[in-house]
Amino acid sequence: MKDDQNIYKALFDDASVGLAVNKTESGKFVFVNKAFAKITGYSLEELNTLSFWDLTPKQYEMQEQVQLESMQNTGSYGPYEKHYITKAGNWVAVRLNGNRINLANGERITLSAVEDISEFEAAKEKLRLSSLAIENSSEAVVILDESKCIVSTNPAFTEITGYEFSDVKNKCLDNILSDPSSFEQYAAMTKHLDDLNNWQGELRLTSKWGEKLVLRTSVDSIVEHSGKVTRYVALLSDMTAAKRWEDALWKQANFDTLTGLANRHHFQTALQRHLEMTNLNEHPFSLLLIDLDEFKEVNDTLGHDVGDELLTLVGKRLLLHLRKTDFVARIGGDEFIAILPEIESPSHAGAIAEKLVHSFAKPFKTPTETLYVSASIGLVHCPSDACEPKSLIKQADQAMFMAKRMGRNRFCYFTKSMQEDALKKMTLTNALRAALSEKQLSLHFQPIIDLQSGLICKAESLLRWHHPTLGTVPPSDFISLAESAGLINDIGTWVANQAIMYRLKWGQKTHDDFQISFNVSPIQFRYENIEFWNHWIKDVKSKNLHKVLILEITESLLLNAEPSVLAQFHRLRDAGIEVAIDDFGTGYSSLAYLNKLDIDFLKIDRAFIRNLENSDNDQVLTEAIVVMAHKLGLHVVAEGVETKEQAAYLSSINCRFVQGYLYSKPLPANEFEHLLDSQK
């Protein structure tokens, strides 16, 4: 019997569940085990001095009375969940079951089994909060079964997609996808989930009301201890508005707002991609650089709105005549560029370029105008010409400029000689920048003879450049460079001031009417140079030289002049400065401007004088120019006179002034000064 008691006591003390015996009426603990003590935080001895009321929060007192009544009536209570107050003052969740025991002496006790359910309660609370979070989440949550069919959705899914759970229940996710790319993504998602149990990416689906949605999607697998996947949880965030904004920003950064074509940035990215493909797989391609001819005239005469409409039409025509695989961009102004992939040889690209050139023969019709423009196209091939972005673009540009030099309205292949010419041009331009400061420029003077007196009456000043290593550089090689490099104003200023200096210096060696002429580029008449001319005119008039300096200009300056250029021209004429038309008859001659504008001299080009003795036509044309000029009150100077016979004929038709190698080649200033001294 005693052994049985020991066994029962051991079972009581060492049970994993808390056990407590208390007096039914008072609640005072009689026996408790170690598990119960652990739950409450009290020692066994301390608990023997307490009752269950000491461990019960006040808010449970009414419920406790209910349990006591149950025990009175039935002899048991529970299961019943409540909290105990631990020794540390914390609350611990417990589940109780109890039975009443009637002792032989008539005393009643209660045996209670007490289970610590704190972890269970915490898990339950966590589940409750999770459920609450899912239900109130602004992001769609979709639960999928092991077959990836929908078994649950939250309210946000309905709000985003319009689909109620009943609309999609037991449907697989791919049933509501809309975009072909999403089916590829779905296949990738399925494979990734099978391999790694998670996936992230974008899915596109059509909402219940027909809107195309972009959803950032994250899917995780729920895996049992056995390793079997039982559920998938998909989190879908609506990125539609953000994606539209992102797409709009991308389009703004990569496309030309006027034509809708790719812009320079997008082109550079595409070019780099094609170069990488060529390097990896040896896929050749060609570049076409397309520049409109005479586009500036459209803008200047009809306005920029019409010019913009023309550019839009050009973009559409390029797309019409290029292949679907070709990439075309507007890279600025009236310049377009096309990448032609899978072009085996330059000749294949040439056929496409020729087609484009011919396509421009058809007029471009805007709502108000019918416009005719042509195109000059430069063609470069990769890898045969270059395999580096800057080189390809530079070479295409060189080929395009060659097409313009050859008459426009054509295409031109890049050749290595163009590169050599470009290098020479760059070298000369850089050297020219230092020419003024390093005193490499000088003026030579060619005498102009009065055939009536046989004396020097005027001199044309001609710019010369002697470089320490390049030697003498012809004006034909560097004047156009000075214009394109923005150096012509500085050089022209120096020439104009030199003309003043030499006329003052030689004033005592010549007669009062001795004149010096110098050439002026049309660019020098532009608005930005107005301050120089105003100062120069003031200087000339203060020195009383305005009647003895002649500006030589080309016909093109007057034929194609902007209003500001003509205004500057008239200011010079109003100041008394005389003007000569140089190389008359070789440009786009128009008799109209001779009548409208105040000109003093015509200089007949040497092309008419060269064969004067042997060409009846040249004689007729030369005489006609002289007669016409005299009728208009203009003086005539014949250039390029090299024989006495030419001089005699010119004298016979009353051409009074001549210049040429018959009298003297252009001379340095000191030699020309000796020539002036010799005729005294």
TrEMBL record:
SUPFAM superfamilies: EAL domain-like, Nucleotide cyclase, PYP-like sensor domain (PAS domain). One of its GO terms (molecular function) is catalytic activity. Residues 425-680 form the EAL domain. Transmembrane segments: none annotated. Its cofactor is Mg(2+). Residues 199-251 form the PAC domain. Residues 283-416 form the GGDEF domain. CDD domains: EAL, GGDEF, PAS. Residues 4-47, 133-171 form the PAS domain. PANTHER family: BIOFILM ARCHITECTURE MAINTENANCE PROTEIN MBAA, DIGUANYLATE CYCLASE DGCP. NCBIfam families: GGDEF, sensory_box. This is PAS domain S-box-containing protein/diguanylate cyclase (GGDEF) domain-containing protein.
